[in-house]
Design brief:
Blueprint lengths: L2 H15 L4 H20 L10 H13 L4 H21 L25 H8 L11 H18 L4 H5 L6 E2 L4 E5 L5 E5 L2 H17 L18 H15 L6 H16 L2 H8 L4 H4 L7 H11 L1 H16 L1
Antiparallel strand pairs: 1-2, 2-3
Length: about 325
């Protein structure tokens, strides 16, 4: 069977089955016909001529011309679906997709702030006047939101879920309910505690009834995740001239802690990650420190330095 004939029949079967969206059918058709053109240029016009090496060559050629990994994975999925369709009618047909490794997804590195940017963001804006009114309450609440997101690397959902009873004033910590309803205790920095005291001084007058939430809105009820996201975005635009997401502050806190300590395991506990592989993404952010640690501690580094000195003396 010709490759183009197989593709046309497959796309028509998809369309008639109703199991795929029009967008998926269009994408599969685009990808498969691109593969067909590539195969024809190599003198392969029939399905029987295609082997695993041919498919690997196609994916590598696409990657070399700048196609993103995400798009390559879609190409791979289209080929896999095509051969699944073909084997349904011809079980004896060789399936070159089987055993071929799917391109690995690209790991998107998190957005983060530099230490200087974080310092500017955390700089409190002085009150416009002496009156402790509703505007003062919002200003102090928003300052505390920034401080806790950065000081304790909280997720926005964890921040919104904080209650007054989660604060440990003597220990200088806060109890957080993270993903999977797992509790963890995280430290809170001195600037955050100062912001907390200022905020709590105004909170009782704004609270509605027996509301236990730490962060409340102007109606005295728990502040929602969406509201926090909007406030942080606005604060980023006002103080840094850029839109800001709460998770950026969590990433920044993790990065800065790792830069200062070099202790990946401690950062894992700090963030509440189940596995250290998730935390390891932050190691890209401080190559300079990695180089210093290598020079000081790695045996190959010390040996190489001695060999270099010996070479220079003999030269």
């Amino acid at each position: 069977m010709l490759i183009e004939t197989a593709i046309v029949q497959f796309i028509e079967t998809l369309r008639q089955s109703g199991r795929a969206s029009p967008a998926t059918i269009s994408a599969y058709g685009h990808d498969l016909f691109a593969w067909s053109r590539f195969s024809q240029q190599r003198g392969q016009t029939k399905i029987a001529q295609i082997d695993r090496r041919s498919l690997r060559a196609y994916l590598m050629a696409e990657r070399s011309r700048g196609v993103a990994i995400r798009s390559l994975r879609r190409h791979f999925a289209a080929l896999r679906a095509l051969y699944r369709h073909l084997q349904h009618d011809a079980p004896e047909l060789r399936n070159p997709v089987q055993g071929l490794a799917m391109p690995r997804a690209e790991q998107r590195l998190p957005d983060w702030l530099t230490v200087d940017q974080a310092r500017v963001l955390m700089q409190p804006i002085p009150p416009p006047g002496a009156a402790e009114d509703q505007k003062d309450f919002i200003r102090l609440r928003d300052q505390l939101i920034l401080e806790l997101l950065y000081s304790s690397a909280l997720r926005v959902s964890e921040l919104a879920g904080l209650n007054l009873g989660d604060l440990d004033y003597h220990g200088g910590t806060v109890r957080v309910l993270g993903k999977g309803h797992k509790e963890r205790i995280v430290p809170v920095g001195q600037p955050a505690w100062a912001a907390l005291r200022a905020y709590l001084a105004l909170r009782p007058a704004m609270s509605a009834g027996e509301e236990t939430a730490l962060f409340i809105n102007q109606r005295g009820r728990r502040l929602s995740v969406r509201s926090i996201q909007i406030r942080v975005k606005k604060l980023g635009e006002t103080r840094l001239g850029q839109a800001l997401h709460p998770h950026t502050l969590r990433h920044s806190a993790a990065s800065h802690l790792l830069q200062s300590s070099g202790d990946l395991r401690a950062v894992q506990e700090f963030l509440g990650h189940a596995g250290i592989g998730t935390t390891a993404i932050y190691t890209h952010m401080d190559y300079q420190q990695l180089a210093q640690v290598y020079d000081q501690a790695h045996p190959r580094s010390r040996r190489d330095a001695q060999d270099t000195k010996h070479f220079e003396e003999k030269a």
